Amino acid sequence: MPAKLAELGLVTVGGRQRGDSAHVLAAVRTLNGLEFVAETLRAGLEARAAAAPQWLTTHVEPRCAGATDPADRPSHRTALS
Fold first, then answer.
1. Which pTM value belongs to this model?
2. Which of 6, 26, 61, 69 is the most buried (most CB within 10 A)?
3. pLDDT score, position 54
4. What is the tens place of the pLDDT at every residue in 17-71?
5. Separation of alpha carbons 75 and 35, rounded Å
6. Residue 52, domain extent
7. In this structure, is residue 4 part of a structural domain?
8. Is 49 within a domain?
9. Confidence (pLDDT) at 6
10. Alpha-carbon distance 69 to 61, whole Å?
11. Higher pLDDT pick, 4 / 68
């Protein structure tokens, strides 16, 4: 795993890595905010779909309408393996 992280430019060889660096905390904060927005949007669309299913079919692309399983949703996370 360290080799893959170095290949991605996330760590340097022989360098001292700190988990509390300002840029690391800022990146985590940004990702948390994006995930919060995405989950809020998903919950709103699911509530709307339950209340008015016909609205959903006219406003959401068919390829996205069935992606309620977390495994089916696109992710912003990058696999390291």
1. 0.49
2. 6
3. 87
4. 666 678 878 888 888 999 999 999 989 988 988 898 888 788 777 776 665 555 5
5. 10
6. 21-69
7. no
8. yes
9. 78
10. 16
11. 4
From the list 2, 27, 26, 25, the residue with the least C-alpha distance to 15 is 2
5 in a domain, yes or no?
A: no
- CB neighbour list of residue 48: distance below 8 Å, 6 or more residues apart: 55, 56
31 part of a folded domain: yes
Q: In terms of Cα–Cα distance, which of 51, 50, 48 is closest to 40?
A: 48
The pLDDT, as a whole number, for residue 73 is 56
Instruction: State the total domains in the chain.
Output: 1
Tell me the two tokens of residue 31: 């990702």
Question: Cα separations (Å) of 9 from 1, 15, 38, 41, 56?
Answer: 12, 12, 27, 32, 42
